[in-house]
Specification:
The complex is a heterodimer of chains A (314) and B (628).
Chain A: H1 7-21, H2 26-38, E1 42-45, H3 52-62, E2 67-71, H4 78-82, E3 83-88, E4 93-98, E5 105-109, H5 116-128, E6 130-133, E7 136-139, E8 145-150, H6 163-166, E9 171-173, H7 180-189, H8 193-197, H9 205-217, H10 223-238, E10 242-244, H11 248-264, H12 272-282, E11 288-289, H13 298-308
Parallel strand pairs in A: 1-8, 1-9, 2-5, 5-8
Antiparallel strand pairs in A: 3-4, 6-7, 10-11
Chain B: E1 2-3, H1 4-20, H2 29-47, H3 54-70, H4 77-94, H5 99-119, H6 123-148, E2 153-154, H7 156-183, E3 201-202, E4 217-218, E5 223-228, E6 238-244, E7 246-248, E8 251-253, E9 261-262, E10 268-276, E11 286-287, E12 290-294, E13 298-300, E14 306-308, E15 318-324, E16 327-328, E17 330-331, H8 335-338, H9 347-359, H10 363-377, E18 380-381, H11 392-400, E19 402-403, H12 405-418, E20 423-430, E21 433-435, E22 440-444, E23 448-456, E24 460-464, H13 482-498, H14 502-518, H15 525-548, H16 553-568, H17 579-586, H18 589-602, H19 610-625
Parallel strand pairs in B: 3-4, 18-19
Antiparallel strand pairs in B: 1-2, 5-10, 5-22, 6-11, 6-20, 7-8, 9-17, 10-15, 12-15, 13-14, 16-24, 20-23, 21-22, 23-24
Helix pairs in contact in B: 1-4, 1-5, 1-6, 2-4, 3-4, 4-5, 5-6, 6-7, 9-10, 9-12, 16-18, 16-19, 17-18, 18-19
The chains are: A alpha/beta (314), B alpha+beta (628).
Chain lengths: 314, 628
């Protein structure tokens, strides 16, 4: 079976990162890479101090990508993200100073602390992949990925992302505490933030671009898998607890991430289990439950749905 | 050291012989010879460490089956089956010695033994059966060792321990089995009753009443009958069993009823479905007064007594219809017969009778006078310290003043006769514990009772219970709670299991068998039927196979591969798992190769090419042959 292009390199990066620098974050790393490969964005929802920033830094460094960071506060303005024009007296004209968003990987920390105006500017940039400032449109670099974090516990002084905005994130996931042994090791070694700043790039930029193209063009989604995905989407739409099920954009996202998963498995076609494995990353934040069932765990409902739909084996 | 496999083989040979021997006399020549030959050949093969492979034995079995099937006809159903069983048992002994094959041999041996019971049923069958059960228990225990490790060795001590424990199971189980399933449910007295020496007379229903034969009686709680009936008022709860109308040696007995004609008693009609316990008695009790008894052959008398044609030594049931009435109207009463007196009556009683005759005018007044006399004597109802001796009734009435219903009824009836009122004793039961859950009355032996009927001109036989005049006459305790459930369970056990007539069932089977033997098919059609069956059965099997076969090549291949995988990794396959996932989890190289080829076709929406099918078949072959 022919392997899609550059898959070994990608897996090598994952392997190197998760075994050397970011122990116990395999899942989050993998999902981040999938998001990057499909051109989507990822929302990390977890309490502070579990290494979200460290992971983003290491990720960007290992892939040889530029990294920008925005710490959101309630007085953050859109121009703090996109950049603004500054008058240059010597040259006698305005020069555009690019904001942190003009990087390959942008970490938006605590996105729910920014006010809605800033949030929507950011989300627009994520969707359009370009920024228009003072009538001039600037293209964002390629590849481009936003890695936003959100603290699910604190509620005071936050502007939680509405569900419609959540839909813009391809993947939402947590990081979780590292396993006991790994955490003990981390405690012994101390923070590795400095070390991470010096990770040599493990990948050429062209390789990454080629891998992204391979995921988009070489990985095949067959009829059976499409049927399976459609069955899942339909089940979320007709489920009695759910008010709004997966949108078509959600379905497309599911296909994209499943393609990336298949790619990372070294296959040039999607198997149903690829889809099933990424459902929990792609779907829950897109489901809107009926008001009377808001407290129900979305993962549980999804699990129940997945159990009902058999994997197509033949 | 003891080789378990050797031991097991020996046991299996013995077990097979125990299946073969009882059938020996009824087998055809071929089967008779084939089995010992197969046994010897199997032994030799085993000794030399070989066995006939399945590809030899399966065609052999089919050939043998066809050979016997050709001799098959309805009339030879049993002999052919027996031959086949024995031959298959022989074939099984020739094959490889695996756990499954041992179990098959055991099962076939049991079937052979069972088949022998179709030819004849003798006590020898039980001997064979018990021997077989003993050996099977040991063999099954050894088989568990064998399944763990085929070459397992036990020391002599260990082997002895294993065999002892294995033997202990059937040895303990068999008597318990007999006890619990055959003896216990079919006895009507508690088994430990024989331990009690009968120093005292037992209370209970009898058809002679002679007070004074023992100073005390004991109450046994043995069940007499259960009657499914609606609830009736407590004061009407008299179960009429027998009417004693005459004397023999100063004891009340029943003699032929003089020709009186009774008419239908008035009163509420109650139908009862009665399940009597087994006894030697032939009287069929029913609520006072019984009108008709059906469901059991019986003779009815005009005084409301029903006698079964044969003793109730089996569990039976009957339907009784009663009218709850205190009066039985009759015509043509033989007064002289009901005024007969026993030979031995004390002077004090004669005086009392005469006094009643003189003082009282009408019959009712005389009865009233005697009732007052009984009440005035302040008699006590008791089952101990009762009067005995030459004239117990005199002693009961005037001296000891203690007695049970027999004393009360007997003395009152005699006094009535002395006063010129025709009277008779009625024996039966008083009371009954109503089981609300089951909706039936439970009547026990200690409820046995005797009361009196006195004839009043123009009215008929009037019901009188003299025991009710005793001081503090209280009877009847209600069973409550748990006891009620226990009795109900027992009742349904009787209804479903014990009343189940085994002999009748066997007779039915026999009859069915003989009818089947007499079933004659038209000439020639037997052969034709056989041919049609031989043609239709394979066709039906083929159709079933095709129906169950997955429709596509891919699905068939996948099913075979999954079966092979299940064999390679027993218990590891789960529902709802993807193929790649499964292959990765089991880390099985064959499965990985299979799914990479298979998935690349199936999930890319194309059919498998011819080469790919060949490759997959090869993988399946390798996977099922080389188990990890």
């Amino acid at each position: 079976m022919p392997k899609p292009a550059k898959v070994d390199e990608m897996n090598a990066v994952l392997e190197e990162l998760s075994s050397q620098h970011l122990k116990g974050k395999v899942r989050a790393l993998r999902l981040s890479l999938m998001a990057l490969l499909t051109g989507g964005h990822i929302l990390l929802e977890d309490i502070p101090g579990l290494g979200k920033t460290t992971m983003a830094l290491a990720f960007a460094g290992a892939l040889g990508l530029s990294f920008g960071r925005v710490q959101c506060t309630s007085d953050l303005l859109p121009s703090d993200i996109t950049g603004l024009s500054v008058f240059d007296r010597t040259e006698g004209r305005f020069n555009f100073i690019k904001g942190p968003i003009f990087n390959n990987i942008v970490l938006i920390d605590e996105v729910n602390r920014a006010m809605p105006k800033t949030q929507s500017a950011l989300l627009e940039a994520m969707e359009e992949r370009r920024v228009t400032v003072e009538g001039v449109t600037y293209r964002l670099p390629e590849p481009f990925m936003v890695l936003a974090t959100q603290n699910p516990v604190e509620q005071v002084g936050t502007y939680p992302l509405p569900e419609s905005q959540m839909d813009r994130f391809l993947i939402r996931t947590g990081i979780g505490y590292p396993p006991e042994e790994v955490e003990k090791g981390i405690l012994r070694q101390g923070s590795i933030r400095d070390e991470i700043l010096h990770i040599p790039p493990l990948l050429q930029h062209d390789d990454l671009v080629e891998a992204i193209r391979a995921v988009r063009e070489q990985v095949y989604v067959g009829e059976k898998v499409t049927d399976y995905i459609y069955a899942i989407i339909k089940a979320t739409r007709t489920h009695p607890l759910v008010q709004t099920g997966l949108s078509t954009r959600g379905g497309i996202g599911l296909v994209d991430v499943a393609k990336a998963a298949a790619y990372l498995h070294g296959r040039d076609f999607v198997a149903p289990e690829d889809v099933r494995d990424v459902v929990h990353a792609v779907c829950p934040h897109r489901l809107i439950f009926r008001p009377e069932h808001e407290g129900v765990d979305k993962e549980h409902v999804l699990n129940a749905i997945l159990k009902e739909i058999p994997l197509p084996l033949t | 050291m003891v080789r378990v496999d050797l031991f097991l083989s020996g046991l299996t040979a013995c077990i097979a012989l125990l299946g073969y021997l009882p059938l020996l006399a009824h087998l055809g020549l071929f089967a008779r010879v084939f089995f010992p030959a197969a046994l010897l050949a199997g032994g030799y093969l085993y000794y030399s460490g070989r066995s006939l492979p399945g590809r030899v034995l399966t065609p052999l079995s089919i050939l043998l089956f066809l050979y016997f099937a050709s001799g098959f006809s309805i009339s030879r159903l049993v002999p052919v089956t027996a031959d086949l069983l024995v031959v298959f048992l022989g074939v099984r002994l020739l094959g490889e010695r695996s756990g499954r094959h041992y179990l098959q041999a055991f099962a076939l041996s049991l079937f052979c033994l069972a088949a022998s019971s179709l030819f004849e049923m003798s006590a020898l069958f039980l001997v064979y059966l018990f021997a077989l059960l003993l050996l099977l228990a040991v063999a099954l225990v050894l088989l568990t060792f064998h399944a763990q490790d085929e070459a397992i060795l036990l020391t002599r001590h260990e082997a002895r321990k294993v065999v002892t424990v294995a033997l202990l199971m059937p040895v303990v189980a068999l008597p318990l089995l007999l006890f619990f399933f055959f003896i216990l449910p079919r006895t009507q007295y508690p088994l430990w009753n024989f331990l009690k020496t009968p120093a005292e007379k037992r209370i209970g229903f009898s058809d002679t009443v002679k007070p004074g034969s023992a100073p005390a009686v004991s109450a046994v709680k043995g069940v007499v009958l259960r009657a499914v009936a609606p609830k009736v008022p407590e004061q009407k709860l008299y179960w009429r069993g027998v009417v004693l109308n005459s004397f023999k040696n100063d004891a009340w007995v029943r003699k032929g009823v003089p020709g009186e004609i009774d008419s239908v008693p008035a009163g509420e009609r109650v139908t009862q479905e009665i399940y009597p316990e087994r006894s030697q008695s032939t009287y069929l009790p029913a609520l006072n007064v019984g009108r008709t008894v059906s469901g059991l052959r019986n003779e009815a008398s005009t005084d409301g007594v029903f006698v079964a044609r044969r003793p109730l030594d089996q569990k039976v049931k009957y339907l009784a219809e009663s009218a709850l009435s205190d009066v039985i109207q009759v015509r043509g009463l033989d007064r002289a017969f009901y005024l007969e007196l026993p030979g031995n009556i004390s002077q004090r009683m004669r005086d009392k009778g005469r006094e009643a005759a003189q003082k009282g005018g009408s019959t009712a007044q005389r009865m009233r006078f005697l009732e007052d006399f009984f009440r005035g004597q302040r008699l006590t109802y008791a089952n101990s310290g009762m009067a005995v001796g030459d004239d117990p009734l005199d002693s009961f009435l005037f001296d000891k003043k203690r007695g049970n219903c027999e004393y009360f009824a007997s003395s009152y009836a005699i006094l009535l006769r002395l006063a010129g009122v025709p009277s008779r004793l009625v024996g039966g039961y008083r009371g009954g514990i109503y089981n609300d859950i089951g909706g039936y009355y439970l009547v026990t032996e200690d409820m046995a009772h005797v009361w009196v009927e006195a004839y009043e001109d123009g009215v008929g036989w009037r019901f009188v219970d003299p025991s009710a005049w005793a001081l503090g006459a209280v009877r009847g305790t209600q069973a409550a709670g748990f006891a009620k459930y226990v009795d109900m369970a027992g009742f349904y056990w009787d209804k479903a299991v014990v009343t189940y007539d085994l002999e009748k069932q066997i007779a039915l089977v026999r009859e069915a068998g003989s009818r089947a033997r007499n079933l004659r098919l038209p000439e020639k059609s037997g052969k034709g039927l056989l041919v049609v069956m031989l043609a239709v059965v394979p066709l039906a099997l083929l159709a079933a196979w095709i129906r169950r076969r997955p429709p596509s090549v891919e699905a068939r291949l996948l099913r075979r591969m999954l079966r092979a995988a299940a064999k390679r990794h027993p218990g590891a396959l789960q529902e709802g798992e993807g193929l790649f996932e499964l292959a990765a989890r089991l880390d099985d190289p064959h499965l990985k190769r299979f799914v990479s080829i298979y998935g690349a076709a199936v999930y890319r929406d194309r059919s498998l090419s011819r080469e790919e099918v060949a490759q997959l078949e090869e993988i399946i072959r390798l996977a099922s042959q080389h188990l990890p």
